[in-house]
Amino acid sequence: MTASPHVVVIGAGTLGMCTALDLVEQGARVTVLEAQSIASGSSGRSVGVVGSQFTDPFEIMLRVHSLRRFRQWEGEGLAFNHIGYLRLARTPAQMELFARSVEIQAEAGLRSRLVRANELRELVPHINPDGLEGGLFGPDNGFLDPHEMCNLLAQMVRAKGGEIRQYRKLLGVQRRPGGYALETDGDPIDRERRLIDCDVVVNAGGAWAPRVAALFGQRLHIWPERHEAVAIHLDEPLRYTMPMVMDLVNGEGSGLNFRHEKPGELIAEIHKVKSAAPEDPDNYNDQCEEQSKVDLAELLLERVPDLPGARLGRGWAGLYPVTADHRPFVGPIDASEPTLITAAGAGGYGIQLAPVIGQIAADWVLHGAPVSVPGSRSLAPSAERNVPGH
Ligand SMILES: Cc1cc2nc3c(=O)[nH]c(=O)nc-3n(C[C@H](O)[C@H](O)[C@H](O)COP(=O)(O)OP(=O)(O)OC[C@H]3O[C@@H](n4cnc5c(N)ncnc54)[C@H](O)[C@@H]3O)c2cc1C
Fold first, then answer.
1. From the CB of 40, is ligand 1 less than 6 Å away?
2. What is the per-residue pLDDT for 186?
3. Cβ(208) to ligand 1 under 6 A?
4. How many angstroms separate the alpha carbon of residue 202 from the centre of ligand 1?
5. Which atom of ligand 1 is nearest to the CA of 350?
6. What are the Cα distances from residue 117, in Å, to 120, 240, 247, 284, 305?
7. d(C-alpha 10, C-alpha 216), whole Å
8. Fold of 82-141+223-322
9. Taking a C-beta distance cutoff of 8 angstroms, is the pair 79, 143 a contact?
10. Coil, strand or helix: which one is 322?
């Protein structure tokens, strides 16, 4: 491959934009093809939380890489709201895992601390601590607007010579010696103008990534899982900033989470809800169902019963692109085709993991292996991982 290959990234969501930026910064020629507009897929429907309050050392390490990059982008104008992140524990065993997380995060330079049950109200005065053992709190975590993030990254990609073509959907693929000719929609008359030659393709197609892979004759198992979020309006602004509060530890807990959005408004979501069947990303109900609002209200009433005049507001739904083991796919599906790299399947963590996924995907493109993030070869969509999961 040439020193500065032409790489086409499919998808202008968080994963595609982060990958594109890493690639242009390292000298590649980059074209992003986006079927719709920037952040029009899952990224624009997310609640944008970025946190490192996890218990698995590898999951924490991935976020350490991402957080470094977010900090750098804050210097370039990214608005990151450092409201803090509180993960709730229901058992002493979970508190032990949290204690270890505090140590791991400290070794990586991240601030976090244990919060005992009787201290929870210092952070969240409205919380009902019944049934809780305590929590793990990271004061520097927070949220951002993924739409703004993708647009900022797009500006940075363009400033470094990259190109972003919106409303250009990949429709077909021809293999050519040393690369591909990609057929896109666009010019209805001149077929040549719809063809783009490139050396490498990164499939960052989110919930559509299996369809993109199929154009290359490859099979990718990503389950588009529908999730809903709802705004909660309060009669009066809280006298404190509600951090991100998450009731889920390694799959245990209700999955309820909520956070500050603006004075007098919170955003809430149930992380655990599962679609009964895979959704069609081109045709799913993108509104919140009434029953879901009722379920959410019940969980909120149990955990934060006295929020002043809380009312459910607008709701929406989007898709988590989920893999069988709930870890993203980053790398080639087929080792014999190293010029097709997948960067997809980040589930409910595709905002916070996007910077590190972009870094690993760029490594695969430019070095043929994930050289900058230890252990990340395990994220490749190998035959063991790339299997149906639901
Ligand atoms: C309600 C909700 C809340 C969430 N909250 C969080 C959160 O708090 N924190 C977090 O980290 N994550 C969260 N997520 C998950 C996160 O939104 C996703 O993991 C992430 O957005 C996936 O990004 P992506 O770039 O892989 O996919 P997308 O953003 O979907 O981007 C894929 C893009 O590819 C384009 N595309 C598809 N096919 C083609 C083609 N043939 N040609 C050209 N372009 C194509 C699509 O148009 C799309 O824009 C949430 C998700 C939902 C639904």
1. yes
2. 74
3. yes
4. 15
5. 19
6. 5, 19, 14, 40, 17
7. 13
8. D-Amino Acid Oxidase; Chain A, domain 2 (3.30.9)
9. no
10. strand
The verdict on the CB of residue 43 being under 6 Å from ligand 1 is yes
What are the start and end residues of each CATH 3.30.9.10 domain in the chain? 82-141+223-322
The mean per-residue pLDDT over the stretch 310-315 comes to 94
Query: Cα–Cα distance between 36 and 57 in angstroms, integer?
Result: 37
pLDDT per position as a tens digit, 56-96 = 999 999 999 999 999 999 999 999 999 999 999 999 999 99
- DSSP-H helix ranges across 312-380: 354-367
Among protein residues, the one with the nearest Cα to ligand 1's atom 37 is 205
C-alpha to C-alpha distance for 101 and 56, rounded to whole angstroms: 8
Architecture of domain 6-44+147-222+325-379: 3-Layer(bba) Sandwich (3.50)
Mutation to probe ligand 1, out of 326, 351, 357, 379 (largest number of atoms < 8 A from CB): 351
- The first and second tokens of residue 147, run together, are 């739409």
CA quadruple 356, 360, 361, 362: dihedral positive or negative?
positive
Give the 3-state secondary structure percentages of the chain, helix then strand then coil, rounded to 5: 30, 25, 40
Per-residue tokens: 350: 């595709």
pTM of the predicted protein model: 0.97
Q: What does the pLDDT read at residue 275?
A: 64
Q: What is the CA radius of gyration of the chain?
A: 21
Instruction: Using the mean position of ligand 1's atoms as its centre, give its distance from the Cα of residue 43 in Å.
Output: 4
8 A C-beta contact, residue 162 and residue 30: yes
Coil, helix or strand at residue 231: strand
Are 178 and 41 a contacting pair, CB within 8 Å? no
Q: What are residue 86's DSSP bridge partners? A: 137, 245
Distance 209 CA to ligand 1 centre (A): 10
